[in-house]
Automatic annotation (TrEMBL):
<protein>
    <submittedName>
        <fullName>Iron ABC transporter permease</fullName>
    </submittedName>
</protein>
<feature type="transmembrane region" description="Helical">
    <location>
        <begin position="93"/>
        <end position="115"/>
    </location>
</feature>
<dbReference type="InterPro" id="IPR037294">
    <property type="entry name" value="ABC_BtuC-like"/>
</dbReference>
<dbReference type="GO" id="GO:0022857">
    <property type="term" value="F:transmembrane transporter activity"/>
</dbReference>
<feature type="transmembrane region" description="Helical">
    <location>
        <begin position="61"/>
        <end position="81"/>
    </location>
</feature>
<feature type="transmembrane region" description="Helical">
    <location>
        <begin position="198"/>
        <end position="219"/>
    </location>
</feature>
<dbReference type="GO" id="GO:0033214">
    <property type="term" value="P:siderophore-iron import into cell"/>
</dbReference>
<feature type="transmembrane region" description="Helical">
    <location>
        <begin position="288"/>
        <end position="308"/>
    </location>
</feature>
<keyword id="KW-0812">Transmembrane</keyword>
<keyword id="KW-1133">Transmembrane helix</keyword>
<keyword id="KW-0813">Transport</keyword>
<keyword id="KW-1003">Cell membrane</keyword>
<feature type="transmembrane region" description="Helical">
    <location>
        <begin position="155"/>
        <end position="178"/>
    </location>
</feature>
<comment type="similarity">
    <text>Belongs to the binding-protein-dependent transport system permease family. FecCD subfamily.</text>
</comment>
<dbReference type="GO" id="GO:0005886">
    <property type="term" value="C:plasma membrane"/>
</dbReference>
<feature type="transmembrane region" description="Helical">
    <location>
        <begin position="315"/>
        <end position="336"/>
    </location>
</feature>
<dbReference type="InterPro" id="IPR000522">
    <property type="entry name" value="ABC_transptr_permease_BtuC"/>
</dbReference>
Length: 343
């Protein structure tokens, strides 16, 4: 009981921190907007500056929501992969899903010059890039599911996923070699990751994928807790390992694939946030971990995005670099402080 009280108190504190970070993220940027103007905009009242209202409604809020959805999706994907493979280094990149998204964009952007007649201006739309990334993720997912039906060992599936990642990276390298400078530059910018390019319609589509993944995760909680004891023990408890594995892989693919499709490849979050949460909550129970991982993932992405947009500056740093620079030292410090990894 004392643990549950502490857990609920920590969740409330985290939610409050998330709300505060959400408004700070909206307020800061190349133009700093006072919080009272943000509240007036959200409440539909008159604001002292109509330009601020336009910026808040069409740029800042969509970007903050994208950060929350991306952080939640990647961190939850990491938790699922680490439990399924019983490997603390597993993450959304492990099954090659993120690599598949990168391959889809690389084929679209850098393969255009090889196909001829298509210029980069015709494929520069963010929606087009998201569709290409989704197709790439789905293609790799399909291959992984076919392989998963033939491979009984989960560790073998982990290695196969890493091999798929190597194959897609090799194809991207070949495409880069033959690509024009303009197309290569466009692909590199996409690979930096970006949270600020989505329209409201794209955010709605992103949300649909996110909630579909969450529903699958809810059905995976019991299998995940059983898998903590090992596949043999879980099987002796009556768990259908094959069915559970498909369910977890589908959930991860939907969450990680959609996040990469809409925000680009973002490293570190999926790997680090589950470890961070386990160290703080000191448990491996997924019923407790999943809500905490969602909030921590959203919180980390909002903090990283606030730093990346360099308040009072016209420059914006790549979000992919900031997530690693900010998060990695925190995890190292926690592991040194605890002196033991909970897994």
């Amino acid at each position: 009981m004392p643990f549950l009280k502490t857990y609920k108190l920590n969740l409330v504190i985290l939610l409050l921190a998330l709300v505060i970070c959400f408004f700070i993220n909206i307020s800061l940027g190349s133009i700093n907007i006072p919080l009272r103007s943000i509240f007036s905009t959200l409440l539909g009242s008159n604001t002292e500056n109509e330009t601020w209202r336009y910026i808040v409604l069409n740029f800042r809020i969509p970007k903050a929501i994208t950060a929350i959805l991306t952080g939640c999706s990647l961190s939850l994907s990491g938790l699922l992969m680490q439990t399924l493979f019983r490997n603390p280094l597993a993450g959304p990149f492990v099954l090659g899903i993120s690599s598949g998204a990168s391959l889809g964009v690389a084929v679209l952007v850098m393969g255009a010059s090889l196909l001829g007649g298509i210029t980069s201006s015709t494929i520069a739309g963010n929606a087009t890039l998201a569709i290409a990334a989704s197709i790439g993720s789905f293609a790799v997912l399909s291959v992984v599911i076919i392989v998963a039906s033939r491979v009984r060992d989960t560790m073998a599936l982990l290695i196969i996923g890493l091999m798929f990642g190597s194959i897609t990276a090799a194809i991207v390298s070949v495409l880069s070699y033959f690509s024009t400078m303009e197309n290569l530059q466009q692909y590199i910018f996409w690979s930096y990751g970006s949270l600020g390019n989505l329209s409201w319609n794209q955010i709605i589509l992103f949300s649909v994928f996110f909630f579909a993944g969450i529903v699958l995760v809810i059905f995976s909680i019991k299998p995940l807790n059983s898998l903590l004891l090992g596949e043999n023990y879980a099987r002796s408890m009556g768990l259908d390992i094959k069915k559970s594995r498909y369910l977890i892989i589908f959930a991860t693919s939907i969450l990680a694939g959609s996040a990469t499709s809409f925000a680009g490849p973002i490293a570190f979050v999926g790997l680090a946030v589950p470890h961070l949460t386990k160290q703080i909550f000191n448990t491996a129970n997924h019923q407790i971990l999943i809500p905490a991982v969602l909030i921590y993932g959203a919180l980390l992405m909002l903090i990283c995005d606030t730093i990346a947009q360099l308040p009072n500056s016209a420059y914006t740093l790549p979000i992919n670099a900031i997530t690693s620079m900010v998060g990695a030292p925190v995890v190292i410090w926690l592991l040194i402080r605890k002196r033991k990894m909970i897994f």
